[in-house]
Specification:
With about 220 residues, the chain is an alpha+beta fold. The chain is built from two helices and 13 strands. The protein is about 10% helix and about 30% strand. The strands form three sheets. The chain has a seven-stranded antiparallel sheet, covered by helices on one side. It is globular. The termini are far apart. The structure holds N-(carboxycarbonyl)-S-(naphthalen-2-ylmethyl)-L-cysteine and fe (iii) ion.
């Protein structure tokens, strides 16, 4: 019976939701990898601790950040850029953990980006009250690379707009284990995260963590 090859047990399949041209949401793709990713985040942040960076306008960001890979995203009074050195430690950023690279390439492949090899991963830590205002990611050299994002911990409301800041935004809930891939025509779309609500996640605690994988160099 061709319709019952798996005896009624379907192979693991994550829902694939198209958000826009080039943007795909893979609900729960990282659920079974979350414990490994959390262990790797602890490892990275023990070498390059989370810190609240300062924007060029002089505002302290409410989101705390760290990075791993060949380059990390940094901001200070002189601007936004990628840097091979962590300015807080004076050392190279920690290497990209294998579990990070594996989830990034799996997601990109599922979304149709077959040879994405990220060289940078920005790790965002949100505590209740933290937010990320509407922005574009435009510090990466080659916009042909997608960005892969992995959400862990408390749920957040994500805003996704158009190519102009004033374009209307759609809102999506991003939950523990959700993975999204942003490329092609959506690569330069404005996006942001609304103020994180109070809560306690069973595996992650009172926070949200987000990994964004980038081809920066
Ligand atoms: C859409 N992070 O670090 S991930 C960022 O949840 C950032 O921490 C958010 O925006 C977070 O820059 C959102 C989802 C995301 C990331 C990059 C995008 C959406 C994107 C690039 C283009 C379009
Ligand atoms: Fe962004």
């Amino acid at each position: 019976m061709i319709n019952d090859l798996f005896g009624g047990i379907e192979p693991q399949q994550t829902a694939q939701e198209k958000l826009a041209k080039g943007a795909v949401l893979l609900r729960g793709l990282a659920l079974d990898k979350a414990d490994d990713l959390l262990t790797a985040i602890r490892h990275v942040s023990s070498a390059s601790p989370f810190r609240n960076m300062v924007t060029p306008a002089g505002h302290v960001m409410s989101v705390a950040m760290s990075n791993c890979g060949q380059a990390g995203w940094v901001t200070d009074r002189s601007g936004y850029r990628y840097d091979g050195t962590d300015p807080e430690t004076g050392q190279p950023w920690p290497a990209m953990p294998d579990s990070f690279m594996a989830v990034a390439t799996e997601a990109a492949t599922k979304a149709g980006y077959l040879d994405f090899r990220p060289d940078a991963c920005l790790i965002n830590l949100y505590e209740p009250g933290a937010r990320l205002s509407l922005h574009q990611d435009r510090n990466e050299r080659d916009m042909a690379n997608p960005i892969v994002s992995v959400s862990l911990g408390l749920p957040a409301t994500f805003q996704f707009g158009g190519l102009k800041r004033s374009d209307p935004v759609q809102k999506y809930a991003l939950l523990h284990g959700d993975v999204a891939v942003w490329g092609g025509p959506s690569r330069l779309c404005y996006h942001g995260v609304l103020t994180l609500k109070e809560g306690e996640h069973p595996a992650v605690g009172r926070m949200r963590l987000n990994l964004t994988f980038r081809g920066a160099l």
